[in-house]
Amino acid sequence: MVVFSSSVYAEKLTIERLFSAPSLVGEKPRSLRFAPGDNYLSYLKGSEANPDRYDLWLYDIKKAEHTRLVAADDLNSSSQELSEEEKARRERQRISGSGIIEYSWSKSGDAILFPYNGDIFYYSVKNTEVTQLTETEAFETDARLSPKGNFVSFIRNQNLFYIDLATGEETAVTTAGGGLVKYGMAEFVAQEEMKRMTGYWWAPDESAIALTRVDESPVPVATRTEIYADTVKVIKQRYPFAGAENVNIDLGVYQLADASTQWLGLDELGDGYLTRVNWLNDSERLSYQWQSRDQQRLDLRLFNVDTEQQQILVEETSDTWINLHNDLYFLEDNNHFIWASERSGYKHLYLYRLDGSLIRQLTSGDWMVDELEAVDESTGILYFTARRKSPLERHLYRAQLNSGSSNNPTQITQREGMHDVEFSSTFHRYIDTFSSPEQPVQVSLHGPTGERQAWLLENKIDKGHPLANYLRDWNYPEFGQLTAEDGQTLYYKMTKPSDFDKAKKYPVMVYVYGGPGAQRVTKSWGNHFVQYMTQQGFIVFTLDNRGSDNRGKAFEAPIYKNMGSPEVTDQVTGATFLKSLPYVDEDRIGIYGHSYGGYMTLMAMFKAPEHFKAGVSGAPVTDWRLYDTHYTERFMGMPDEGENYEAASVFPYADGLKGDLLMYHGMADDNVLFTHSTKLYKQLQDNEQPFEMMNYPGKKHSINGRHTKIHLYSMIAQFFQQTIGEQ
C-alpha cells in the first residue's frame, strides 16, 4: 500500500485538480512499445507547458537514456482542422490530444511513420531526419509502413494509395471511392463495435494488399443536428439502426505487380459481418472471419489467392452470441494456428492444423483468458494474460504448445493487481504496466520469466509526487461478494469516506456501468471522481452485475433478449445489502452512470424507486431500436422478434420515477444519438414529472474537454450533495 504520512502534506482534493496537470498519478508514457529487437522503447509524451500535445521519444534500455526524436512543434505542416472522418475515427479509438498521436515502426527498426495535421511523415532512425511524404488539401488517414518497409500506404478521399519509398512514386490502388462508397476503410459498426479500425492489410511479402469495398447506400439516413455554441449543423448520417440494413461489404486482393484486384464476393455468404482479416505467413493464403447477422455463428475462412478456393477452418456457434477476439495466430510453418474460443463456457486457447482439425486445447478451466500475448516458436512457449487467480486480477502466464496439461500454466507476474504486458519481438523482454487499488500505474521492464530488469516508471509516492499532498485523506476500496438470484457470485467494491465513523449514517453513490464487454470491479487503481465523492462524505459502491465481462458465458447470458432486467435485479441486490449495513442511510442511496451506465441509472430509478432516491444519467440509451445493429442485435435479437425491445426500453417504466433525476448528453453525439435523451425529456415533460437536464453544445459521446469535464463533475457532485448529501 502507498503510505506517506505527514500532516504537512494535506491538501484538499478538488474537481479542478482532477483535470489539471500534472496528473495526480504521475505521467504515464503514451503508446509505449518496443522498437524491433529489444534494445529501445518508443513512446509519446507531452511537454510540461502543454501536456496534451505529444512529441515522439525514444528510450535506450542499455544506457537508460531518454531522447526526444521528433517535436510536434518543429514539423513543417500548416495547421488543419481534422476531417469529419478523422474526428469520427478518433472518437471510435477514444483518442484525444494533439501533436503526434500515433506512430508505427518499420519491421527492420530503421524508420518510424506518423501522421500529423492530415499529412504523413517519415522519420529515418539512421539519419535522424524527418521527411514529409504528403502535402495535400485532403486528410490522409490510416497510414502504415508495409511489412518490409518499402512502401507507405494510406487512405485519402475514401480511396487506398501507396508510395514507393525508393522512387517516391504514388499509386492509387482504387479511384472509385467517394460518396457512399469507401475502399480500404472500416465502416461505423466495425470501428465502434467490432474494434476493427482498418479496411486493408498488406501481405507479408508485399506482393498484395487485401482491402474492403464498403457501400453505405443500404444503410438508413439519420438526420440529426449537432448543436454547437454558435451554430447548428444538420447532419445526414448513415446510421445502422437495430433491425435496419447494414453496409454492403466485399473483400478483395490487389496485386501490386499488375494492379489487378480479385473480389471474393462476400454477398454470397448472406447477411453478416466481416470482423477480422489476417494473412498467412506464406502470402499465398488469406484468412478472414465472417459473423452471421444474428452473431450466433462465426466462421474462420481461408482463401487461396492463386486457386481462389475457399475453406472453413473453424465454425463457432452459440445459443446466445459469440464474442469476437484478436487471438488468431498462424505459426511460421504455415501448417498450424492458435485460436480462441468460448465453447467450454470460458475463453480458452486451442491449437489447430491448417486443415481445420483440432490438435489440443492449450488452456482450460473455469477462468478466462484475456489475450494471447506472444508465441515464441523457437522454444514452443506461448504467453497469455488471464483471470486464473481471480476474476478481479489479470496476470501473465506461460504454457507449452506441446503440453497436455492445459489447466496448469505457469504464473509469471506475482503482484496482486492488474497487469498489461507487451513483449519485444525477440521475446527476451516484456513491458509490464501494473496498478492495484493501493498503487497507481507503474511501468517496468522484465525478462521472460518475470524478473524485473528496470523501472520505466516506478511512480514512487515521495514528497515530490503530485499525489503526495493528498494522501492523508486518500481512501482505498474494500472488496466483497454477494449472491445473485441464480446463485452466481457478484463482486463489489466499496470505498468509505475519510474519517469513517461506523456509528454514523452515510449517503451512498452507486457508481454503475453494468453493460456487456466491461468490468468495473477490478484490483486496479481507482476512479478519481469516486475518490473525490468519498472525500465529500459519501460511500461509493460499485457492483458488476450479470452481463458484465470476464466471468464466462453463464454470467453474461442472462441479459440475452432481456436487457435491463437481470442487471437491475443485481443492482437491487447491491442496494439491499447496503441497506443492511448499520452505517448506511437507506433513504440516501443514489446511482450514477454514463452510456450503458446512464441506461442502468434510468432503469434503476424507474423500476426500483424504493431503493434509489437520486440518479445521474449520462448519455443514456433509452430505446434500443435507436442504437446500432451489431451491438444491439447481439444481445437483443431483431426488433420484430416479440416484445423484447419494448421491455428493454426505459419508456414503459418512466411513470415509476419518484426520486430526483439529472440527465446530461453531448449535443453532437454520433454514437448514442442525442435523440435518446430528447425523447425521454419529452415523455417526462408530458407526464409532468420534474427532472433536471444539462446538454453540452458540440460534445460527442465522451464529453471531452477540460473545462467541460470540470463543469460536468462539479454539477454531478453538487446534485448528489443537494439531494442525498448532508443537509
From TrEMBL:
Alphabetical keyword list: Glycoprotein
Top-level taxon: Bacteria
InterPro entries referenced in this protein's UniProt entry, alphabetically: AB_hydrolase_fold (IPR029058), Peptidase_S9_cat (IPR001375), Peptidase_S9B_N (IPR002469), Serine_Prot_S9B/DPPIV (IPR050278)
Single GO MF annotation: serine-type peptidase activity
GO biological process: proteolysis
The keyword Glycoprotein is annotated on this UniProt entry: yes
Record carries keyword Amino-acid biosynthesis: no
Domain (Peptidase S9 prolyl oligopeptidase catalytic) ranges: 530-726
Residues of the Dipeptidylpeptidase IV N-terminal domain: 115-440
Stated name of the protein: Peptidase S9
Species of origin: Idiomarina zobellii
